[in-house]
Amino acid sequence: MQRHDFFFLPPTTPESGTAREPSPSPTRRSSRTGVYEPKPSSVVMREQFHKLLVALTALIVLLLALDAFWNSSPSPLGSGITAAALEEGLRTCAATATRRRDWDRVFLEGGKPPSNNRPNGNPRHAVLSALNGSSTPLLIQHATLWDGLGNRLQNTDIALAHGIIVRIGTGLTPGDVVNAANAHANKIAKSLRGPKAHYISAQDVEVVDVQGRVVSPGLVDMHSHSGVNPSPGFWGDDDGNESAGDPTSPYLRIQDAINPQDKAIELIASGGVTTSLILPGSAALMGGEGFAIKNFKSTSNSTNHLALNSGMSLNGEDGKLWRWMKMACGENPKRFFGSEQGKFPGSRMGNAWAMRAQLEKARSTLRAQILYESLVALMRRDIRLQVHCYQTNDIDMMIRNKHEFDFPIIAFHHATEAYMLADKLATENISVALFSDFSLFKREGYKHSVRAPQVLASAGVKVAFKSDHPVFNAQHLIYEAQRAAHYGFDEDLAFAAVTSVPAERIGAGWRIGSLQEGFDADVVVWDRPPLQQGAHPLRVIIDGYTTLKHPIVTSQPPTPLPRTPAVSPLLDYPQTQLPAYTVSNISGIYTQENQILKGFITVENGIVTCIGLKCSPKGYLFNLNGGVVIPGLIGASIPLGLEEISVEESTSDGEAGTQDALDGFVYAKDGLRVGGGGKLLEYAWKSGVLTGVVAGKGAGFAQGVSVAFRTAAERYSDAVLKSDVAFHITIGNDAKEGYAKSIASQFAHLRKLLSTTPASPDSPFTDVLAGKIPLVVTTHDPNDISKLITLVSTTAPKVRLVLYGATGAYLVADELAKAGVPVILQTPRCQQQSWELRWCKPYGTTRPSVYEILKGAGVKVGFTANSWPDQVRSLLFEAGWGTVGEGIGDGKVDAEDAVGVVTWRLADAFGLEETGLGRVLVGKRASFIGLDGGPVGFGYNIQVVGDGTFVTTQPIQA
């Protein structure tokens, strides 16, 4: 049957296929012939009489109903109840209104103790003392105190005892700590619930002179999945989502799934994150209740003793016993239930209806029923709701639900488009928990802006940063604040976004997230200012217990150099083709390894014609005003030009099969697309990644031949720099597929490929065996790395082996150095996200680092961004972070190393020497960026880009 928007066409006859005209007279279908025949007159008269009788009856009923309506009078008691019952009902309504006002007041105040005085001190400390013994009283002297509220105090002392901050001042002595600690012990001993008084003496106090280093409150992560997505990742431990349930399951509790033995908990603490809000995943519209923990594992191995609320009284004297809830909007629920399971909901309309239906059931009962108790608690302001929403339409829908069903929303999480509704969110007093930079993983994230925090904060919205661990490693939560500050967010607000703001928004701002007397003793001593490149804790203290302890050495990391003035002049048109141009007044030109020059760079027809102090300016002249120049960065094995949005297949080249790759049918140059305003390529070149080296996408054994190309190119004819760069394969769990279902069979296939002439004359493996192009192998396990070195060296010694990923490479560094095999680390800040990645050596916990081990052994090392393609614009940050010396050693920054790992070392690994890529050399094509200082560290911005004849000034990241 045909349908047109709001009506149906008349049915068609089988014979004509056209609309049937109405019969001129009543007919009936013959059971004998199957055709329509006229009805007898007696049948027609009987049918007309029946119709008249039905119409008359309906008219009488209607008249009676109208008479009853117009002539009725109201009952004296209105509702049909007694006056006493009515009066009791009114009293109940008044009491409910009073309770509602109390709910609102407590909610807005964050649930602090009624007297603003914690009668039992830190109740968690009492619990932990019974398990682990009392914490050691601590006096931190000569600190630069960042209190998390925007205040910075020089030469300040902080005294910790009994799990709280007992004193902050200057010139404090152990005796001052004793007096403050024992006064506190007397106070809590008077409480009916207080622990037995524990008095200290001056000999008990540990004194730590931090020599001016920054001391801050512990960081607070208000969106994490540690404990339910443990490290290393196993299917048997993956409990973040209830995949077999309903799309609305608010009654589930994440605390019932948390594994307190997750190694990530201690690792996260080592990054200074002392409190984490663990939330269910975002597959369901209502995923269940969250659970706030302190990242300090007790000897009990009990989830209860991780709880932020552990030890708190039920009567409220220790503060409100908050609960937390997670809801989700948009793509995730409709994909998980609709697209993947064929269930309802499968659209945003379905999402909204399912959520409203569940809320309506809760509102209509408002009593404790097992299925709706959590939602009733939400409406009674006992739960602080966190909502996963990205797009403006989803955020707007949730705000409509908020008003329709009268429940509060604390924060929208991820919320990439929230900056477009900044004023509305400020009016609603709803915060936003963001990534500083994460966008192109799905459509919902596409309109993300690194300027969003400024827009939101300017409108009065409180901004927090979170990890979504293990999406990003919560150990490095401070990295989110660092990047936001780099892109222009106020430094104090950026630091507050990982301390006081999330603490306040989870309802604990009166005890954590700030350094104040009486607050929990959650304290971090940093090796350098927290927003500086490479910052990492020297000490982490949770509830007074030291969980990370490195020596406080006398020498400190150097202070970053100040920024130089902006380039002048600026181009009138942001992207210009210039036949000749010169960059002058350069304080450092990192041309290649072991060579840093000064002066000028002159470019003619896209080729560098002069470098140094004696160059004569040619063409358009740019004054860098003392800035530095480095080669254009190389983005290795990031799907630049082959993908735009990760989960949107229509924006991708697609995945090719192993056999096609081996037969010579998979060349990345054939799938490459440039220009068209794509964000991923724009992210790359505007952050200095001027060259991409990419292979085809594929989850199997072989990915085909990579291509080197210009990320700023607008046309394919201007893009390709080297068409056939390297052949790429994978060894390990990710390569298990039809062609090679086991790691053993992967090695067997590789052995055969290395020892025999390819069956197909077009196979690119012919060039691999001849040493014309490198063989790049993605693998992580050190056992597999050793096997690869032996196999290649004994079977095909001409093959130029390159390792990619290489998480466990540091364990066989001597073998790699002896064989001359370069390594490309897929960031040194790795995570133990799978069994093969369990070899990850966490950054910042012990010296030496992975990079230092490999470099010390003589291995040539390059870096690339992590597995999320849009992180390409943080490549220079990763290079700086991975090569910077840590404060537990000499703390020095090796700027040349940082430049080299993302330029000339990658060029050498891929055999790009003849192109001049990764270097700034006379006679080679221009590919460089000029910065206003650095080049390592946050806060330095690109002032000029020279890419052949293509030039731009001050490219702005959106």
UniProtKB/TrEMBL annotation:
Protein name, entry field: Amidohydrolase-related domain-containing protein
Coiled coil: none
Domain Amidohydrolase-related span(s) in chain numbering: 372-530
Gene3D superfamilies: Metal-dependent hydrolases (3.20.20.140)
Organism phylogeny: Eukaryota, Fungi, Fungi incertae sedis, Chytridiomycota, Chytridiomycota incertae sedis
Residues in the signal sequence: none
A GO molecular-function annotation: hydrolase activity, acting on carbon-nitrogen (but not peptide) bonds
Region called Disordered, residue ranges: 9-39
PANTHER family (UniProt xref): ALPHA-D-RIBOSE 1-METHYLPHOSPHONATE 5-TRIPHOSPHATE DIPHOSPHATASE
Domain of life from the UniProt record: Eukaryota
Pfam families: Amidohydro_1 (PF01979)
Organism: Rhizoclosmatium globosum
